[in-house]
Task: structure prediction
Amino acid sequence: MQVRIYPTKQDVAAKFSTFLADLVKSTKILNIALSGGSTPKIVFDYLAENYADLDWSHVNFYWGDERCVLPTDSESNYKMTVKHLLSKIEIPSENIFRIQGENDPEKEAIRYSAVLEKELPSEFKIPQFDLVILGMGDDGHTASIFPHEIELWDSNENCVVAVHPDSGQKRVSITGKIINNAEKVAFLVTGASKAEKVQEIIKKTGNFKEYPATLVKPTSGKLIWFLDKDAAKNIR
Result:
């Protein structure tokens, strides 16, 4: 595990964008699972502004999770990505594999599981992403696996239906076996509100075993935390 700490969330966006751009330049086919959230939004803006001229034609975008809403809904991770990145770069439409949040959640989890089986290469008989991008909530959740449903992490399925603990909103999420089978996993975590959980998870203290983000342990060993100083203030 690597922990990289930068002064601001804008610095996190810049450094991660460089990391991603280098992968794009050095890889013939790149399969990426994207994350929603405020930090990826800043990353997408930075990529669109500084790396729009990259050859994105060999990059395939998937999503690690999606809210069960229309793709035009303001809460849609897909809509956010289109607005901040996909509409500003040249990438074939066939390279975009969105979770269809407007569908019946249970049926969509099955459908997207099949998409991953069909489109991704297999390692250990499990679909393998080249890179999974993750955020982390104030409660230690990641993708859409929340502490109250932490058992979903160990599902035998590629995708499951999760429920937000407060709103009751359903979400489709990839599971632990997909995340930990990725060639590389990157956490993008910024802000002081994340500092307590970052400390517990990285230092293995407190209630760290209760947080799904603790369970991110790719078999490749290639896990990188991109943190700003506010999120990392308790581990420096």
Notes: The chain has one domain: 2-223. The chain is about 30% helix and 20% strand.
